Amino acid sequence: MSSTRNTAFRPAQVRRRLETFSLRWQARFDTKQIDQALPWVVAVLLGGLLAGLSLARTRQLDAGLGLSSHLQGLWLIREGLEPLSSLAGHNLLWEQGAFILYPIALLTALFPDQPTLLSLQAAALGLAVVPLWRLTRDVGRLKTGGATAVTLAYCIYPAVHALNLSDFHPEALAVPAIFAAILWALKQHWKLFYAMALVVVICRSDLAFALAGFGLLVSAQGERRRGVLIAAVAAGYGILALTVIQPRFNAGNFPHTEAFSDFGHNNPGSVLWGFVSAPHQVLADAFSQANFEMVVFLLAPVMLLPLVAPRYVLPVLPLLAVYLVADVEEGQLAEASQTVPIIPFVFAATVFALARSGRVLVERVNVDRRLLTALVLTASLFFLRDAPSSLYERPWDWGRQETLDIARRDAANMIPDNAAVRASESILPLLSDRARLYELQPLTNPNAAAVAAAPQVEWIIFDAASVNQWSPLDIENFDLDLRRSGFDRIEVTTQQTNNSIRLYRLQNVTHS
Fold first, then answer.
1. Between β-strands 459-463 and 90-91, what pairing exists: parallel, antiparallel or unpaired?
2. CA gap 421, 419 in Å, rounded
3. Which residue, 66, 111, 122, 457, could crosslink 422 as a Cys pair with Cβ 3.0–4.6 Å?
4. What number of other Cβ atoms are within 10 A of residue 38's Cβ?
5. C-beta of residue 217 within 8 angstroms of C-beta of residue 345
6. What's the pLDDT tens digit per position in 60-83?
7. Eight-class DSSP state of 243
């Protein structure tokens, strides 16, 4: 009889012991020294991991046009010129008003530009751990277990890894600043908030609209006059940037004409009228299957917890809706920059959702460890499924240079520094330190591709891997058409590339 009673009570005893063990270790980690040091340690480790992944990807020449155009723009700034990128086809400041490119150019003047740029982006994404941790501890009042679970969820959040591997975006540098702005505002340290808000808007001008929405949240939480002021100033800057500042860098043209061409042309007023006059089209675009998958991509890894504290997500929803309606290139990496304003608000809402679900023990909120375990496991599952650096992508194999990669570098090294060049996308980052650099478009028709490649340049580098749809005969036709256009084929020093890399020089142009 007694043995039966002891067996019946055994599960309860195990649970109590686990609870005691968990609380004991949380108490040890709740010391001031660990609380201050741990987020910085995690930030350094995460930043280093992200930097290693992005540098390995670019070492095997998998980077795209976004990195190349920014490298070229930074080189132009260092040369005392405007960042008028021939790759992008316009001044880089026209796109998003990213004035942070100028201080970044100072860094790339001191250190190698490509590693510096990618490491800076990775470091910013890692640094976001610090204000996130302080948000969980100082505002959400979570115990160490809850703060650790949220931090781990951020470290393996698929959107963070997609942003890290999507070439380079100046707005990625705003992620820790948005986290810090939310933190300082909720702690009512307004001078620090204003400093972080300034960093945010010089990374990307339309992030001002996310700050405007956050100002309304501040107003709703009791700081009415200050919140309205923040909303008014932020929205005012966003409108000024879109209608005055950015257009001056491209002959007065509205910067997002192509993205909203279905609604209007040439000016924001036309686009706005298009939204108002065709609400059915706006709704159809916003609720498309691709956009639904994007919303799931953002919310599912954190167990939809932001829906429990929706007021912390509402400030960014109007900007998210505009992003979803915009006609941009689809794909996880192509759309990564659009997640920048969403990431901090998703995790802020997650923090307060956990705080609401827990119970206060002395000064801290204790969240059920089963919920925290489920959060970490869910984040891990979606990391494995959706992150571009998932284990299924075998990131430990990245960074290996094959014969083809060496041939690409050899071909790039054979071109003079001041020459005008057109090259396949994979080779562009190797040639960015020049004013006249153009992409060799992978058109379906090889004859049309040869005709489009010849003007404006003296050198052409063709990478057959960029046109998988071409047959060997198509490649030979492209080669013949270029020769007829006045180009000579130059032998690349690296052998055994099966003619995958072809280098052409305009006749009567010297090699020096």
1. unpaired
2. 6
3. 457
4. 19
5. no
6. 888 888 899 999 999 999 999 999
7. I
